[in-house]
Specification:
Helix content of chain B: 25-40%
Helix content of chain A: over 70%
Structural class of chain A: alpha+beta
Largest sheet of chain B: 7 strands, mixed
Oligomer: heterodimer
Strand order of the largest sheet of chain A: 4-3-2-1-5
CATH topology of the largest domain in chain B: YojJ-like (1
Number of domains of chain B: 2
Shape of chain B: elongated
Distance between the termini of chain A: 99 Å
CATH architecture of the largest domain in chain B: 3-Layer(aba) Sandwich
Order of helices and strands of chain B: HEHEEHEEHHEHEHEEHEEE
CATH class of the largest domain in chain B: Alpha Beta
Largest interface: A-B, 14 and 18 residues
Order of helices and strands of chain A: HHHHHHHHHHEEEEHE
Distance between the termini of chain B: 36 Å
CATH superfamily of the largest domain in chain B: DNA integrity scanning protein, DisA, N-terminal domain
Number of strands of chain A: 5
Largest sheet of chain A: 5 strands, antiparallel
Number of strands of chain B: 12
Strand order of the largest sheet of chain B: 7-9-8-6-10-11-12
Chain lengths: 275, 269
């Protein structure tokens, strides 16, 4: 055992001073016993913490709610699951704390110095890992939810949205995790700011017309001031409405089908023509 | 043993084109070495064939299927009337198990291909409506035979050639055919009288519509009732396609430009 071996290194001076080496010999196994005892207790406690967390997570319905996410699926591929990964992580964490306690009681100074720092740092690592895992799962889940929502709307052009939402959440969670372990995140924060800025600016500039048409279209679809089959006049186009979607309204007259952007319905107004 | 080799030789020699119906990769590869690449006729172009005709319905009738493939081929300029075509197609199995020698004729332009490919509505929408009609014809409404009429495409004009019988159940709803839930809704609402109006992109505009086309001079087979008369007439007044399920004989019929184009027996699908 390294611990006791290292401990003996400090002893030669003591051995020379002490009257009988028996006391040292008696002392050593006691320390060793204590060391092993703490480790055993640590193993037991960590095992109980892990199984408690596992049951807690299962009772909370975590496995059902994260079913189908990429993280859970890849965890399954390795023969494990998100819940057991999280539970085990907490178990390892508790065990590591006990290990350091055991080492310090065994008087391994050279190790303890480093390890106390490590253990003081451990909660942050643990939180960081948990944050990343939660970020991955929540991102996945929200992406799936957005995807399902959009499937009902039947708009293939918004297929990028779920991925965008998912990776935004993952990105933010990674940022939080890195900040937890005190990695310099300022560059990433700049990136986040640029990203957020872009998220506002790109739609504001490039998608301005689309967005205006989309919001107008949403109103038109929900309120339906006119429907397919009605004769309408939007701007200088007059005809029968053939098709309406979020962005354009198709108006047909005399064999010509006009694709009128929905925003025109608001900027130029709609006239319903009744015979 | 009969003199089968000669029989086969008679069928396969001197053909201008080969049409493969739903072939596997190995079969396609075997034919690809010919000087002219074969035409693949299948629901989807999984093989990335250069010459491809989409088969929207798995026509059970072999003649319908071949006709559809040839018509599509003629439309795409892959074959012309007068040419001899070898059709390799599955009849009993899922993979091609029969070869048919057929001469392409102008009269094969029966309009079935035209019905799907050159209508106002998207081919997938027409196919989805067909599937609903076939399904409805097979199962009926709660076990009883049911009739239904779908007018697909040119919805604006159709709406102006019809009037509501009562409140439109699909008002302010934005549902499309092909959605499994929507198919259930369609079946449920088929017990209401009147027609379904479906737009070019598959949106269900209305049900419970009473069609008011001018029926003068519409010529449909005798024995068909008012529903089919309305179905044929509305397609003459508008650019729509109509698909009718008969309550009495259970057949699905498709009309375009006032004419009966296709008749299917749902029991065969």
């Amino acid at each position: 055992m390294t611990g006791s071996g290292l401990a003996t290194n400090h002893l030669p001076v003591d051995v020379a001073q002490l009257p009988s080496p028996d006391t040292v010999l008696r002392l050593l196994p006691l320390r060793l016993l204590f060391f092993v005892g703490v480790l055993v207790v640590g193993a037991l406690v960590s095992y109980f913490v892990a199984s408690f967390n596992r049951t807690l997570l299962e009772r909370l319905g975590v496995p059902e709610s994260i079913e189908g996410t990429t993280f859970e699926r890849s965890a399954r591929e390795f023969g494990t699951s998100t819940v057991s990964i999280l539970a085990r992580l907490s178990g390892y964490f508790v065990f590591l704390v006990f290990l350091v306690i055991a080492l310090s009681t065994a008087g391994v100074q050279s190790v303890t110095g480093l390890w106390t720092v490590a253990v003081a740092f451990l909660p942050q690592v643990f939180v960081a890992v948990v944050v990343v895992v939660i970020g991955l799962i929540v991102g996945d889940k929200v992406g799936l939810l957005v995807d399902e929502r959009l499937r009902g709307v039947k708009l293939p052009e918004v297929g990028v949205l779920p991925a965008l939402v998912k990776w935004s959440i993952v990105f933010v969670s990674v940022l939080v995790a890195l900040a937890q372990v005190r990695v310099a995140t300022s560059a990433l924060l700049v990136l986040l700011a640029a990203y957020a800025f872009g998220l506002v600016l790109v739609p504001a500039v490039a998608l301005r017309d689309m967005l205006a048409s989309g919001t107008a279209g949403l109103y038109l679809l929900l309120v339906e001031p006119f429907a397919i089959g009605d004769r309408v006049r939007i701007g200088d186009v007059e005809g029968v409405v053939q098709e309406m979607d979020v962005f354009v309204t198709r108006v047909e007259s005399d064999g010509t089908e006009y694709f009128v952007p929905n925003r025109k319905a608001f900027t130029e107004g709609v006239a319903r023509v009744r015979e | 043993m009969m003199d089968s080799p000669d029989l086969v030789a008679d069928i396969v020699t001197d053909v201008d084109e080969v049409f493969l119906f739903s072939p596997g990769q190995s079969l396609y590869d075997a034919f690809e070495d010919l000087e002219e690449t074969p035409v693949v006729v299948a629901p989807t172009n999984d093989l990335d064939a250069a010459s491809f005709v989409e088969l929207p319905l798995e026509f059970r009738d072999v003649r319908d299927r071949i006709r559809f493939g040839l018509e599509g081929g003629m439309n795409a300029g892959l074959t012309t009337p007068g040419e001899t075509v070898l059709a390799v197609l599955p009849i009993f199995a899922d993979t091609p198990d029969a070869t048919v020698r057929v001469t392409v004729e102008e009269s094969m332009q029966s309009g079935i291909y035209d019905l799907f490919a050159n209508s106002r509505a998207e081919p997938a929408v027409i196919r989805d409506v067909f599937e609903v009609a076939i399904e409805l014809g097979k199962k009926g409404q709660k076990g009883k035979p049911v009739g239904a009429l779908f007018v697909v495409g040119d919805a604006g004009k159709t709406m102006n050639h019809s009037r509501p019988l009562s409140y439109n159940p699909f008002e302010k709803s934005h549902v499309h055919v092909g959605d499994p839930i929507v198919d259930v809704m369609l079946k449920e609402f088929s017990r209401l009288d009147g027609a379904f109006v479906i737009s070019d992109s598959g949106k269900i505009v209305s049900s419970y519509r009473y069609l008011e086309p001018a029926a003068e001079g519409v010529d449909i087979p005798k024995g068909l009732g008012a529903r089919h008369m309305a179905a044929a007439a509305i397609t003459r007044d508008t650019n729509a396609v109509s698909i009718a399920l008969s309550e009495s004989d259970g057949h699905v019929r498709a009309f375009k430009s006032g004419e009966l184009i296709l008749k299917l027996d749902p029991e065969e699908y």
